[in-house]
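User: Before I run my own analysis I want an independent prediction to cross-check against. Here's the chain; please return only the structure tokens and, at the end, one sentence I can use as a sanity check.
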Amino acid sequence: MADLNNIEAIGIGLASPEKILEWSHGEVKKPETINYRTLKPEADGLFCEKIFGPTKDWECYCGKYKKIRYRGIVCDKCGVEVTRSKVRRERMGHIRLAAPVSHIWYFRGIPSRMGLLLDMSPRNLEKILYFAAYIVIDPKETNFTTRQIINERDYRTALSEYGRNSFVAKMGAEAIRDLLAEIDIDELAKELHEDLATARGQKEQRITKRLEVVESFQQSNNRPQDMVLEVLPVLPPELRPMVQLDGGRFATSDLNDLYRRVINRNNRLNKLLQLGAPNIIVRNEKRMLQESVDALIDNGRRGRAVTGAGNRPLKSLSDLLKGKQGRLRQNLLGKRVDYSGRSVIVVGPELKLHQCGLPKEMALELFKPFVMRELVQLDYAQNIKSARRLVERGGDVVWDILDEVIQDHPVLLNRAPTLHRLGIQAFEPVLVEGRAIKLHPLVCTAFNADFDGDQMAVHVPLSTEAQAEARFLMLSTNNLLKPQDGKPVTVPTQDIVLGCYYMTLERANPAEKKDAPQRVFSSMDEAVMAYENKQIT
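Assistant: Structure tokens:
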């Protein structure tokens, strides 16, 4: 595995069969998971210790080697390397597919990347991939054209008319792979640029979309034929675990069921090919293999979803990544971090635009290290330990120091989902009683926040550079305009507009203005004082 402490960048691209084999530590050949008598992983199965590593630290499968002193030794009896069991979170396996299979993301995505590259409609592409029609790869001397779609009857007629070797027509992902492999990306880009100069209307739109995909391939150095899988990577077993429950039953990840379907169908297809089974049976098995890989990658994207117990759709690899509960948003973007808190927001009309009301208890917890440092420097405490005790007791001196600490220390407020840059902004904190964060009403539009129970997160920038960035780039008063179109985002809404309307309503009528001049008050206290002095009734 790569050094996880020294990563400069992460890139996502198409994995070639060679790259997948490079990642892999062995081929998964059997659909079995664990032996239900010994409760140990089956050899060459989905949890095989030889492929993925030992289930116990420094112990091989057969028990011949059991100590750390044998580290790195591969057992000559069971073939398991003596190492830490945590490698089962990292080591991948692979399944060598008996027939090529298309990746459903590139065929079914909108727009269909395969369709745009081959200049084919998704409907025709589906017919070929799922063995409903043939596509002509090489017409040779026949009347067919390259990439022409022909049905079973036309294919048989052509065979009897021209002979078996007079043209090449295929079906399934193998045909698509051959066509993709023939594409010269640079040449295709050049042709499309020439066609675009004269194209108009829908044709122009189609060429523009195709050009976008072609140029993406040029920039990324990915190979188009890698959109068709020949080797399927198998996730490390600790990321698709199987655990024993109290009653002796097992709970397992849905991925294991989906992998099992793929392996079963792949093994069956291998056997049929070895036996020389009739073409129609082989074709049907290839289609079923394609469907099982589709379900593994993105269950339910095409046709009915594969279901488990209780008619529940099984969670595929895509389901684990996408959405609010997916790996990216839940575990990577939604990580718990230090020096942060969250609370319900309430309106704070008395605040300035660049201020937010921070509950005292939360502020003390967030700024605790800064307060403790000040206590030691000002000789209120001898060391950090006694300063911590002083903070926990929360005397007057602690609150006074907290007031000083937060003076020039902006905090970041973030409301999920952060859909644009203005979803996280910096504010100067003002200590408030209670447990709710106070927010100026004019910044609500940027956060898409309202006060019906919304929660917001607070983050404290620690370094001087982070504080400077927060103050100059992220302060709410420096973000009055939308980055997307330059229109103002800090605009009066709702009751502010209503208040402005009522304040100016009577002034619009000059006659009423003479009789009863409009009075405007800056606060409730001022209005009450005017009432008590009988200036208003």
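Sanity check: Residues 504 and 518 are 9 Å apart (CA to CA).
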